[in-house]
Amino acid sequence: MFSLWEKQSFLETDVIVIGAGITGLSAAATLKEQSPELKVTVLERGILPTGASTKNAGFACFGSVSELLNDVETLGAEGMTSLVEKRWDGLQKTCQRLGRSMIDIQVKSGYELIFDEQSEAVDKVGSINELLRDFFQEDVFKLANEKISPFGFGKTHHLIENHLEGQLDTGKLISALWKYCAEIGVQIHTGCEVREIHEESSTVRIACKDAEFSAKKVAVCTNAFTNKLLGKELEVAPGRGIVMSIIPDNELKFQGTFHYEEGYYYFRDYYGKLLFGGGRNLALEEETTTDFGINQKIKEKLVADLDSIILPNQSYKIEMEWTGIMAFGKTKAPIVEKISDRIAIGVRLGGMGVAIGSLVGEEVAEMILKHGLI
Ligand SMILES: Cc1cc2nc3c(=O)[nH]c(=O)nc-3n(C[C@H](O)[C@H](O)[C@H](O)COP(=O)(O)OP(=O)(O)OC[C@H]3O[C@@H](n4cnc5c(N)ncnc54)[C@H](O)[C@@H]3O)c2cc1C
Exposed, middle or buried, 291 (CB in 10 Å: 0-12/13-18/19+)? Predict the structure, then answer.
């Protein structure tokens, strides 16, 4: 039972954002930045965000050559370049809003490892550079095979370097965004799993286990969990990803972010440690799940790759392992749309949501503001 005060100050609000990942918090921040008079409330089911935003590997990336070639196939050349621009702009937006040092962003180059001698990605470095030149005004990718031996990689025939790719501290990013939202007046409630959304003529009622909220507009930023919440069949499939934190016995021979097999595998240095994950493509059906759990088959493959590709003939200890849940569709473009007069969604951020998340949040917030609150 709630008091009049609680009802007025906490439960009745102007806009509710569901989900406190990077998209939801960015949406809330944009709403308050653009309309400071609005009461904006974020409802998050977990004690901490419980999806992908605090579970990822912290690559500040916008796509490797083989991923971008794949995007050209699914989205066309223009679709690919537009997605890269959004990822880049999203990263700049996050840096501007929070400050580069607050998220510990470091640009140490990103690299794609290629295991075949003949490779389409290597052949097409020039054509991808050409497609991106208008935007970046320079070549983004170049072959860096001379670094394979000093980095100590096994099985690797080619290395494609992207000197603009960086890495950041995912925990610092979400905690800084959280703090920023609180400072500008966003209320954030954790432990509030939204179970039902009832749209009425002038309001939307949001039912959680222990409370019912009402708002004039709702932004749904629940990524992989959207169909479960809305009871719809949107083209949003969950995809589980694993990350392991590894302590090598000796100093790492490389620094930066690294990908292989179209980004299905990813590793980076983190203050002397190695973060390594991926392998979802080994068991796509099993990994199409919202359950947080470790697939032993994938873990075994990661350990085999550690021993043969990343740290051959080196000893190490696996310190921690965890999983997070991403959301995928037929293309890598996110879904930002109104699903009714009062509800808009910003979901399906794929495997590069750190980059694009703040922009998707901004787009969903602007969609809500554009149509007014009445
Ligand atoms: C292992 C892994 C590695 C990754 N590595 C990278 C990387 O290096 N670089 C990169 O750019 N991207 C990476 N990603 C992808 C990136 O993390 C995501 O695309 C991005 O975080 C998605 O943000 P989001 O806010 O849209 O979704 P989420 O972070 O999943 O947020 C959705 C939130 O909604 C909440 N929620 C769901 N249902 C409800 C409900 N009913 N009521 C209330 N709250 C609810 C969830 O608890 C969650 O906190 C990785 C992802 C994973 C899993």
Answer: exposed
Tell me, using a 6 A CB cutoff, whether residue 94 lines ligand 1: no
Structure tokens at 73: 């196939």
- CB 23 less than 6 A from any atom of ligand 1: yes
Q: How far is the CA of 25 from the centre of ligand 1 (A)?
A: 11
Give the pLDDT confidence of 65-123 residue by residue, as tens digits: 999 999 999 999 999 999 999 999 999 999 999 999 999 999 999 999 999 999 999 99
Domain count, the chain: 2
Neighbours of 51 (CB within 10 A): 30
Same domain, 218 and 366: yes
Q: What is the pTM of this model?
A: 0.96
For a pocket test of ligand 1, which of 354, 356, 362, 364 has the largest count of ligand atoms closer than 8 A to its C-beta?
354
Flag whether 48 is in a domain.
yes
Same-domain status, 322 and 181: no
Tell me the three state secondary structure of residue 212: strand
